[in-house]
Amino acid sequence: MFYSFSSNVRLRKTLYEKTDTVLNQEKQITILQEKIKNLESPPNGVKDHGWLSVKGSQLVNSRGEDIQLRGMSSHGLMWYPEYTNYRAIETTKKYGANVFRIAMYSDENKGYVYNQTDTKRMLFMALENVLGADMYAIVDWHTLKDSNPNTHRDKAAAFFDELSKKYSDEPGVIYEICNEPNGDTTWQDIKEYADFIIPIIRNNSPNAIVLVGTPNYCVDIKSAMKSPLNYNNIMYTYHLYTGTSKGGYEYVLTDALENNFPVFVSEWGLNRDRENGKINYEKATKFLEFLNEKRISWVNWSLANKDEVYSVIDSNNEKLSGWEKKDLSETGSFIFDALKH
Ligand code: IDC
User: 129 with 103: CB under 8 angstroms?
Assistant: First the structure.
């Protein structure tokens, strides 16, 4: 075939135009793909916020902006493992949650110390589900009956070593090294435990957030404030149950914040008032307003349908995900509304 000079130029021009069109189309496809990604995963998760750290008393994201985590805690992982399925966790996200706490009891009949193999398999599956949903995951070494965390310190150490090695590159994992220390456990005991466990975690995952329980079922922030731990990115946990907690959280938590002491409410719950058996929603609303205003992160107990007041799923409901309002318990309906940012 023979081309004149001018037809050659014309041909090249058309080719360039075509290339331009293809490039434009590619650009548009990228933009659309980006939009779809955001629809699948609204920008309040790990992909958006990345590694968290603690600045003063505030939890901040990878850009240094403050962030508040809100979400549900599992019930005991080995009692209600079915509620840690992917779609269950994703349902809490649809209601607004950006964190999920996996409560792994250490010392109770279904606890870690009695069946490490199965408990760990369940834990890693739950953890993958939370991370897969692009949410922050709190791995909670749920001490309770073992009131002093030093009781099973060596087992906790081995567990946290394995966990933090496996997830050393994962910004979504938050380590809660003990749930509610109680009985005669002092802050010094907890400190001794924390000084043993935290360096193990830090050795594998140097910047991860670590939550540390405080004495007397996580209400005694004051003792911890008098003698804080010597690491970055540590937060101290405070727990409240509306019916049984004596109150005074405003004073304790305000004092903590004013002294740059970072607090995380890793568990709170609605239970019946001792005196009249009622659920005090007014107290719960005030508590939540306080936490949200101060940007203190919170996690509610618990995502299960057990016939007990704090279960958020109605006890007659068998659905394992996709709950609508009618599937929730009375307290659950209140809590799911509160998850929305
Ligand atoms: C409770 C569960 C209950 C279970 C019990 C086992 O709701 O079904 O039989 O643990 O010990 C906490 C604890 C948390 C408790 C919860 C309610 O962190 O483990 O769960 N609670 O009692 N602190 C205050 C209240």
Answer: no
In sequence order, what are the beta bridge partners of 98? Answer: none
**Domain annotation for the chain: domains and CATH numbers:** 48-339 (3.20.20.80)
- In the chain, at which residue ranges do the beta strands (DSSP E only) sit? 53-55, 58-60, 70-76, 99-105, 136-142, 173-176, 210-212, 234-241, 263-269, 298-303
Catalytic residue among 180, 192, 293, 330: 180
Span 245-265, pLDDT tens digits: 887 999 999 999 999 999 999
Contact assessment for residue 69 and residue 61, using Cβ atoms and an 8 Å cutoff: no
Contact 73, 303 (CB under 8 A): yes
- Model confidence pLDDT, tens digit, residues 7-52: 666 666 666 666 777 778 888 888 877 766 655 555 689 999 999 9
Instruction: Identify which of 106, 147, 267, 312 to mutate to test ligand 1's pocket (most ligand atoms within 8 A of the CB).
Output: 267
Q: How does strand 210-212 pair with strand 263-269?
A: unpaired
Residues with CB under 6 A from ligand 1: 108, 144, 179-180, 217, 241, 267, 269, 301, 306, 308
**Ligand 1 atom at minimal distance to the Cα of residue 269:** 25
Asked about 180 being catalytic, the answer comes back as yes
* Distance between Cα 302 and ligand 1 center (Å): 9
